[in-house]
Amino acid sequence: MNFAFDSLKIKSLKIEKKIRGKKRFVEERPYVHVLLTAPKGQLKSTVLRELSSFHGTPVFTDVSFAALVGSIDKDTKQVMPAGAWHCRNNFLILDEWNFRTDGHDDTLKALLQLTESGEFSRRLARYAAAFESDKNELPLYFMAKDGAIRVKTRFSLVLASMYDLTRRTQKDTEALISRMIPYHYEMSREELNAYAAGKEILHLAQKENVPLEVKIKHSRYKKILSYCAGAKDENFLRTVGDVARCFAIYGWKPALFDFIIERKNIAENNIQRAREQNAERYAGLVQNQRIQQKPEEV
């Protein structure tokens, strides 16, 4: 959690990459996102409340598409600001999150865009009074203009659930998880007893002197690429990106790099197993249907 909040202090992260034979600096997202999962009774909501209190940002539950990206009051025609805007430069905390299984969740699709670029726009179905955020917020903004709501924000998403979301196989779900550092935990009875006796459950702190702008030279980026050689293929570049963000804040910290690589690899293994299990179940259903058919229908 401290890593995620520290990443918000960086306003610009540029990595020197070799593109078509030439080196140039490419702007990258500096902030990281966290997926926190644990069974019920494991103090997830307590962790989120402490995080919320420490950083002065709300905890959202069952957030809707309109609440996330902004909407229009049907009576007053006034703009209702987006949760993604309200939490700018801070955590966007979503508690007890569960993905719909139909693959058409507008909230999820909005999160995919917001967690990567911080930008989202939507056309409005009704007239709205014009609204524009303060110019002092630039380059971030929230506006309703010309029949559309547009937002450019930056936040670190903390998404918490009692479900192991890495075992879902919808493409949009996998895409969002790939943008995050997944962390699943289960506290022992001794740890729960220690918390009940007054032990701190979460140590929150902020790193001082995090640079506002960071440039990672190509030679260092190559070293990061090499260090991430053990990352799973499907998530390789996402893993490299999170390790680079860690390096931008803390410098060369192999223990932190290993943690990031391990957590993302575990999530990718879970996703792959879920795909295989779904394929096996589907094959079994097809086979059962064939067996149950009459001989003349086969």
- Which series of helices and strands comes N to C? HEEEHEHEEHEHEEEEEHEHEHHH
Q: Describe the biggest sheet? A: 5 strands, parallel
Give the N-terminus to C-terminus distance in angstroms.
Answer: 57 Å
- CATH fold-type name: Rossmann fold
Report the structural category: alpha/beta
Globally, the shape reads globular
Into which percentage range does the β-strand content fall?
15-25%
Provide the low-confidence segments as ranges: none
Query: What is the number of helical segments per DSSP (H or I, 4+ residues)?
Result: 10
Compile the SSE list and pairings.
Elements: H1 2-7, E1 12-19, E2 22-28, E3 33-37, H2 44-55, E4 59-61, H3 65-69, E5 71-72, E6 79-80, H4 83-86, E7 90-95, H5 106-116, E8 119-123, E9 131-132, E10 141-145, E11 148-152, E12 155-161, H6 171-178, E13 180-184, H7 189-196, E14 213-216, H8 218-227, H9 236-250, H10 254-292
Parallel strand pairs: 1-14, 3-12, 3-13, 4-7, 7-12
Antiparallel strand pairs: 1-2, 5-6, 8-11, 9-10, 10-11
Helix pairs in contact: 5-6, 9-10
Please describe what this structure looks like:
- By secondary structure, this protein is of the alpha/beta class.
- It has a single domain (2-217), classed as Rossmann fold, CATH 3.40.50.
- 40% of the residues lie in helices and 22% in strands.
- It has helices at 2-7, 44-55, 65-69, 83-86, 106-116, 171-178, 189-196, 218-227, 236-250, 254-292, and strands at 12-19, 22-28, 33-37, 59-61, 71-72, 79-80, 90-95, 119-123, 131-132, 141-145, 148-152, 155-161, 180-184, 213-216.
- It has a five-stranded parallel beta sheet, sandwiched between helices.
- Strand 1 and strand 2 form a beta hairpin.
- The chain is globular, with a radius of gyration of 22 Å.
- The model has no long low-confidence stretch (mean pLDDT 90).
